[in-house]
Amino acid sequence: MGDHRDAAGLPAVDEVVTLLRARGDALESLLERAGRRRDEHLAHEGRPGTVTYSPKVFVPLTRLCRDRCHYCTFATVPGRVPAAYLELDEVLDIARAGADQGCTEVLFTLGDRPEARWRAADAWLSARGYASTIDYVRTAAQAVLDGTGLLPHLNPGVMTPDELAVLRPVAPSMGMMLESTSTLLVEPGGAHFGSPDKDPAVRLAAIADAGRARVPFTTGILVGIGESLRDRAESLLALARLAQEYGHVQEVIVQNFRAKPDTAMRGEPDAEFDEFVAAVAVARLLMPLGVTVQAPPNLAGELGDADDATADQTLLLRAGIDDWGGVSPVTPDHVNPERPWPGLDALAAVTDASGFTLRPRLTVYPRYQREPGWIDPAVAPAVGKLADADGLVAPR
């Protein structure tokens, strides 16, 4: 990048926009730079030549949400689900099935504060003695730890400092996508209109709070939900600054929009893949060393076309990713249910063909295991039981 950098050492937004526009030879050059930066990152982390994934199960604790994101197929209404929340025995059944298949992570996916919108959610919680969704998340995560030894990763949306403190002893990592800093998206006609938790200022503040709470954190952006290239550049720069300031951003997900039926944005075009790949590469160049860049493998390629998926996954590796995210042998991707996970053999073959070794990792990355103060003492023993000497998944 050029010489015009801010106090954090990051380039000006206009320079980032230029990189995001790269196509043809310029895109090839961008991919080469991103690949070199990824290799530098892997050497910095002590795992050269290694691309990781997390063997996990997904627990859709509740599909109710107070937000109304126009691309979302996960959130629904009370009449379309058997109950407002999964019961604890249902959560444990999913987690145990994952343990039987060698999983190490239980990803809790859920809507933001559904009790603030839906009477059914409030009544379900009250009937069982829970003060809030966050209160129930804590109980469910503790049950998973006690009942299976698997590691909860919590995605309950925007959290306050007090809520982060409550959840930290039951989860070594948490996350929340930034999605975009675009304020236009929360206005009428935007993808986030009617979604109070998607206000960019609210989400940025929550990510900063996670840093002050020393929570290893996953965040990222969505590409193609109506944001401009400048919005995309500003979003990536905002995440890079937060990662530099607090050191808690362990991974940044760059995810491409895929239109889904039964949503308000079902007629919108999918994110153009070269545009998406450029965003992945720019994320790699902007993020500090030590921050993993991830892209979902099941959103690559045309649905049902294995060769096309392989080609797109190869391109993502060239763009500098070093992790494929969660891949489950048990549960579907509840956020993208129409997109099945690739088989691990196929994913390993793609990774190997690009010159890397595929290895399973834990929900919390090795450097947060090594450095004191990041993992709460209450959950640290569970992490230690699953980790090998490199901080990845120990053989069973």
Automatic annotation (TrEMBL):
Q: Which residues form the Radical SAM core domain?
A: 51-296
Quick one: signal sequence residues?
A: none
Q: Does the keyword Lyase apply?
A: yes
Give the matching CDD domains: Radical_SAM (cd01335)
Protein encoded by which gene:
cofG
Q: What's an example of a GO molecular-function annotation for this chain? A: 7,8-didemethyl-8-hydroxy-5-deazariboflavin synthase activity
Instruction: Give the required cofactors.
Output: [4Fe-4S] cluster
What organism does the UniProt record list as the source? Answer: Actinomycetospora aurantiaca
Q: State the protein's name.
A: 7,8-didemethyl-8-hydroxy-5-deazariboflavin synthase
Indicate the enzyme's highest-level EC class: lyase
Going by the UniProt record, its keywords in alphabetical order are: 4Fe-4S, Iron, Iron-sulfur, Lyase, Metal-binding, S-adenosyl-L-methionine
According to UniProt, the reaction catalysed is:
5-amino-5-(4-hydroxybenzyl)-6-(D-ribitylimino)-5,6-dihydrouracil + S-adenosyl-L-methionine = 7,8-didemethyl-8-hydroxy-5-deazariboflavin + 5'-deoxyadenosine + L-methionine + NH4(+) + H(+)
Q: Give the pathway annotation.
A: Cofactor biosynthesis; coenzyme F0 biosynthesis
The UniProt record lists the EC number as: 4.3.1.32
